[in-house]
Amino acid sequence: MSDPVGQSAYTVLTSPPIYDHLYEYCSPRTLLRIARTCKGADEATKEYLSHTFSIRYAAQLRRFFPEAGDVLCFRQLQADLEFLVFGSQAQQLLDCSLYSTSDLNLYVRLDHISAVAEWLTARGYHFVPEIHRPSRSTFEQALAEIFANDYLRLSDPHVELIFKTHWASTNVRSSRVRNAWAEASVQIVVIRDSPLKTILKCHASKSFLKKHSYILLTITQHGR
Amino acid sequence: MNFVSWDRVVSLYPKATFGRRAVFFKYGIFFDIDEAMERSTRPVSSIRISPPTSALDGMKFLNGGRWVGDGNTWTVKLNTSDIRPPESNLHWEPELDDFGLRKPIACSYSGFAVTKSRAFEMTGEIQASLELINSHATSAFLAFLQPQPTVMRSSGYKELSTMPCVVLVQPHLQKLAELVKCTRYILLQHDQIADE
After folding, report:
1. ipTM given for this complex
2. Quick one: A25 and A74 in the same domain?
3. Domain spans of chain B, in order of start
4. SS3 at position B84
5. What is the pLDDT of residues A186-198, one digit of tens each?
6. Is A130 domain-assigned?
7. In terms of DSSP bridges, do strands A104-109 and A181-191 run parallel, antiparallel, or are they unpaired?
8. Which residues of A touch B28 (CB under 8 A)?
9. Most CB atoms within 10 A, among A145, A207, B128, B157?
């Protein structure tokens, strides 16, 4: 960094007392405000957030995949298939909070669904059919129906598939879930196109407002 | 509007989401205040209704060249040192329009022509009870409730009115019941219309 002020700000803001103890108490908003003060602060907070979020993301994923090595494996799968984690998990990560009951929402392309489902099944998850859709009682049936009916080409922008599992909650960090058993739920949103495009289309487009039946956003805000 | 890709976390409306604690409720949303409360680290307990214009102001909801990764997007890169990068880069190549320009975020807020009077007119029924709680300060979150759809007689289509109603939820006890009652009432109305 050529700017001497920025350099000294960076040095101060990455010093152990601040880095290790102060940032932890900052809300995202505070951190963003610190970042806006100068280049050094921007660098320092970026570094901190990147480091912290990587750890937090792993911790969040551990709730769903508690076996050693599975978190890294999941992230590799995410890189290979380029799906997106959307919704409350992303929000929790950015907000430095933890909702005990939230599920994992994945936006996965149709051609990668089987690979993701297989990966989940190998980790103890099972497909949960929707009660009002008896024709999709197994994953294979659901997938076949999606292909057969060509749902994704119609106005219906996506189809949801839900996978669940139960295990002893020794790995669950939240104090709220101290029961003997915890349930983890992964929701896969099947899409035809790019996951990001679908998210933008479904959650931010005006035309989508009119299709009232496909809204996934739930209220996840809280006071701080 | 937050998501995680293999190498980054992205928030498209950070100012609204983490600064103002705003939620935009779309038409027909399943609004579960109990769940919101359960998820809240601090009790959320009172509400304030506020004109949409002031609530939307400054939160970068308005359209006008927003794109993923622009200056108003909050992006945090994740540690990917142990991860093999994908061959393609599906998400981050900007989508271009016919003129070779970057396509903005398709933004629902852009279409709203918000006026105070109309918003209050629509929320008239709950206005009385909400006015009670209008005076409390720090906001915990802000909920935009989609207004009732109106039938466009000329086309025969059922169009949504473009006016959101805004509810600010604030930490103040007693009044929560009012919110629950009011919000559920509104949403019930919506569902009834949707089923027609």
Report:
1. 0.79
2. no
3. 22-67+105-195
4. coil
5. 888 887 767 776 6
6. yes
7. parallel
8. 212-213, 215
9. A145
A109 and A139 in a common domain: yes
Q: For residues A29 and A116, state if they share a domain.
A: no
Q: pLDDT tier at A76 (50, 70, 90 boundaries)?
A: very high
Q: Which of B11, B26, B160 sits opposite A217 (nearest CB)?
A: B26
Whether pLDDT at A102 is above 70:
yes
Number of domains forming the structure of chain A: 2
Q: Nearest CB to B68: which of A97, A196, A205? A: A196
Of A216 and B108, the one with more pLDDT: B108
Alpha helices (runs of H) in B94-175, residue ranges in sequence order: 116-122, 124-131
What tens digit of pLDDT does each residue of B137-175 get?
A: 222 223 333 333 333 333 332 333 323 333 333 333 334
Torsion of CA B152, B155, B157, B159, to 10 degrees: -40
Domain extent, residue A51, equals: 4-58
Q: What ranges in B18-67 are assigned the alpha helix state H?
A: 33-39, 52-56
Q: What is the pTM of this model?
A: 0.64
Cα distances (Å, whole numbers) of residue B133 to A200, B26, B38, B137: 35, 24, 22, 10
